[in-house]
Amino acid sequence: MNYNNWTDIVKKTAVFISSAILIIIGFKVSIFYIPFLIAFILSQLIEPLIRFCMRKLKMRRKVSAILIFAIILSIIIGLIVWGVITLITETTNFLGNFNYYYEKISSKSQNIISNYDFNKIQVSDEVRTIINNASSQLIRNRF
To answer: Which of 16, 17, 12, 18 is closest to 4 using CA atoms?
Structure first.
């Protein structure tokens, strides 16, 4: 082999190994830098609102920044409260109607099982008896 080929191979190998090391270190360090990146992005998104308050409402920068953060925080808290209230309401409605849903599902499943022709799939009599007993016990042993 030629001397140039070996140096080319060594260079490419070194570039590959150093790139792999940098990627691994980058993933490890990204855990530390992600909060700063999020803060930078949020500050860039909020900056036009702060400038608007400074120009149109004639506020100082500190006051307009506090006002914008208070508005955004109240919107976030409002959305969280709305979500929790909706979740509680829907859960209460579901649990209130649970017996109705249970009866409907159990009657439909019992109807399907009783009307199904098990001879099509060649199920033994023991399995058929077990399925029928389990479905009838399911209906009798409600919550």
So the answer is: 12
